[in-house]
Design goal:
- This protein is α/β, with parallel strands linked by helices and about 325 residues long.
- It is built from 12 helices and 10 strands.
- Strands 1, 2, 3, 4, 5, 6, 7, 8, 9 and 10 form a 10-stranded parallel sheet that branches.
- β3 (about 140-145), α6 (about 155-160) and β4 form a beta-alpha-beta unit.
- The structure holds S-adenosylmethionine, 6-(5-methyl-2-OXO-imidazolidin-4-yl)-hexanoic acid and iron/sulfur cluster (SF4).
Length: about 325
């Protein structure tokens, strides 16, 4: 039986005695709340910490597409799966600068560059550092997602002006082995420590709809919320199913469960920017609207993610108008 709303606050208490963080049971308690109670609570947290109707816009660019040696079961860029994504060379600096300028002109405040690497070789990092400098020179926030980082690489990115590094935990430790075998959960945590240690803001989230259980979704959120400090930016991706990947054909998640995941992320990480990330096209406007009510305050903006589609800019503008949402402008901050 679901807990009644009267017993809900107790079930959803943040901590067990003496523990600084969220216990798995407490996070599961949030997931088990009646939907409306969960969303009302998430909205309260959202309104207490953020401008209520402002959404941050990040634009993605794949600076090195395809040919990745890793085996992430969701990913169209893994060389071992036949997805039709070609193995391309790194984009030239001029092309990246032009894409960043176009993103800024369209209203994005952050530009995120992704590479299909296990991690950058030192010789790969040099051109990325130049791209970061170009993005910063345009007055945009910069973000990169390049895989695992080695000694000194996070510091070099910081010196180039990188604001955020995206490196996702993807799922709960218990489910992780079903999705990726070529790197360990602890490798991911180690890269996050390097990023934090270099003074770069952490963008870290995961994917929902990969066949994980609700307990495993709670496990992912508990992991994220217990990072000390928790990430500044938390992307919640809805699996984009790409033909040729092992996860193609996975039973789709109930979209309301996706909304719940956003709400639980908001409650457990009150000051974070929670991004309604990949898979928005599949969710539709109604579910996206619920996600914004549940505390999502960022999206990927622009017609393409890395290799797959995203709602086009006009569709997002129309959705924002219908919902009375505005795009966060450069220099705007959360209220706390
Ligand atoms: N290669 C680097 C890495 O894995 O860290 C950076 C790029 S990788 C594409 C960044 C993230 O994109 C992954 O960790 C995953 O969370 C997300 N992602 C990749 N394919 C996806 C898909 N089909 N649906 C949803 N999210 C996806
Ligand atoms: C994140 O959490 N989601 C983005 C970004 N970080 C790099 C990537 C989504 C990729 C979706 C599949 C694709 O377009 O290749
Ligand atoms: Fe490679 Fe990143 Fe895709 Fe994994 S998610 S296969 S590491 S590009």
């Amino acid at each position: 039986m679901q807990p009644s709303s009267r017993s809900a606050p107790a079930a959803a208490q943040a901590t067990s005695a003496g523990l600084p963080g969220w216990t798995l049971a407490a996070v599961e308690g949030l997931f088990a709340l009646p939907f409306n109670d969960l969303l009302a609570r998430a909205y309260q947290v959202h309104a207490a910490h953020h401008e209520r109707n402002a959404v941050q816009l990040s634009t993605l660019l794949s600076i090195k597409t395809g040919g990745c040696p890793e085996d992430c079961a969701y990913c169209p860029q893994a060389a071992r799966y036949h997805t039709g994504v070609p193995n391309e060379a790194m984009l030239p600096l001029g092309e990246v600068a032009a894409a960043a300028a176009a993103a800024k002109a369209a209203g994005a405040t952050r530009f995120c560059m992704g590479a299909a690497w296990r991690g950058p070789k030192d010789r790969d990092l040099e051109p990325v550092l130049a791209m970061v400098r170009e993005v910063k020179a345009l007055g945009l926030e910069s973000c990169a997602t390049l895989g695992m980082l080695k000694d000194g690489q996070a510091e070099a990115l910081k010196r180039a002006g990188l604001d955020y590094y995206n490196h996702n935990l993807d799922t709960a430790p218990e489910f992780y082995g079903e999705i990726i075998t070529t790197r360990e959960y602890r490798d991911r945590l180690e890269t996050l420590v390097r990023v934090r240690g270099a003074g770069i803001k952490v963008c870290c989230g995961g994917i929902v709809g990969m066949g994980e259980s609700r307990a495993e979704r709670a496990g992912l959120i508990a992991q994220l919320a217990n990072l000390d400090p928790y990430p500044e930016s938390v992307p919640i991706n809805n699996l984009v199913q790409v033909e040729g990947t092992p996860l193609y054909g996975t039973e789709s998640i109930d979209p309301l469960e996706f909304v719940r995941t956003v709400a639980v992320a908001r409650i457990t990480m009150p000051r974070a920017t929670v991004r309604l990330s990949a898979g928005r096209r599949e969710l539709g406007d109604g579910i996206q609207a619920l996600c914004f009510f549940a505390g999502a305050n960022s999206i990927f903006y622009g017609d393409k993610l890395l290799t797959t589609g995203n709602p086009d800019v006009e569709a997002d503008r129309a959705l924002f108008r219908r919902l009375g949402l505005t795009a966060l402008e450069a220099g705007d901050r959360t209220t706390t």
